């Protein structure tokens, strides 16, 4: 455990070269003077896509609501705490929080008592604001060069938040999440700290997803599956371990469901095609083109859920299988209405319309496995 935490501790910004990767083998050395970090794309990259990317966010059209959620169309903000929340991207928390609910339901041991409700809330805080917030802030730090091309008005490349504030936020969220995980293990009376190790493993996965030299997100298949597993499997496992016992069949089933998470992760790649291509990242829209990638995306989402429905039917749970099929239908409708028409223009509308049905399908599957 100490060596794993030491690995994460070697995250260090490179002040003298804001475009290069931080040197991971050097001793960590942070200057805590309050400096603004402005990251600019290289001249070649900027010239290539200058006509496609705005120099700054349109202040008149910026939304305070979008800013707090951490999604595109955000208002330019100067309040440091609002910027901190923006980096944590609260819009990404609900799937993790819902994953905890699904895990608790799958355990069959959750009861509506004050203690069980309190445990689940702490687990949600660990999975959502703390560890997802850590992941999102870390990812934005290592994506600062790409964002300087795609979205130069974001907090880090624009210099709206200092280097010291970003690094401090990463550490506070990471240590806070691991601390809550250890607390939950004690609270649940675990002999083996399973939740702590799930949280630690997820944190390390987040690190290698974003940071060099591995930087899993450079590979569209591996990176997106890792992201999908982080959003679906890990919180489910934490919720089920908190109230019950993880079993091999649940591990396999949730990893299968993570293939749908891979599809959801691809949705976010379309808006970054130009920057990914300029930085040499092989996201699926870059590798296969936008037309092929959008069909890979919806195929991963739909085929996964159909496979799970088939599993439930084979397990003698036809009502749950039919319920899951009923939740797939509106997702397909919104895929044709929004996503397949224009994955860049309608990405937010599509996710807001279709994903509620996907996460309800997760709960249906969890309830089916608990009986």
UniProtKB/TrEMBL annotation:
One of its GO terms (molecular function) is chlorophyll synthetase activity. It is a multi-pass membrane protein. Coiled coil: none annotated. It is found in: Plastid, Chloroplast membrane. Gene3D superfamilies: UbiA prenyltransferase. CDD domains: PT_UbiA_chlorophyll. InterPro entries: Chl_synth (IPR006372), ChlG (IPR011799), Prenyltransferase_related (IPR050475), UbiA_prenyltransferase (IPR000537), UbiA_sf (IPR044878). Its EC number is 2.5.1.62. The chain crosses the membrane at residues 170-188, 194-209, 221-238, 250-271, 319-340, 352-370. Keywords: Acyltransferase, Chlorophyll biosynthesis, Chloroplast, Membrane, Plastid, Transferase, Transit peptide, Transmembrane, Transmembrane helix. It is an enzyme of class 2 (transferase). It comes from the Eukaryota. It holds the Pfam family UbiA. GO terms for biological process: chlorophyll biosynthetic process. It catalyses: phytyl diphosphate + chlorophyllide a + H(+) = chlorophyll a + diphosphate. The keyword Acyltransferase applies. One of its GO terms (cellular component) is chloroplast membrane. Belongs to the UbiA prenyltransferase family. Chlorophyll synthase subfamily. This is Chlorophyll synthase, chloroplastic. It comes from Lithospermum erythrorhizon.
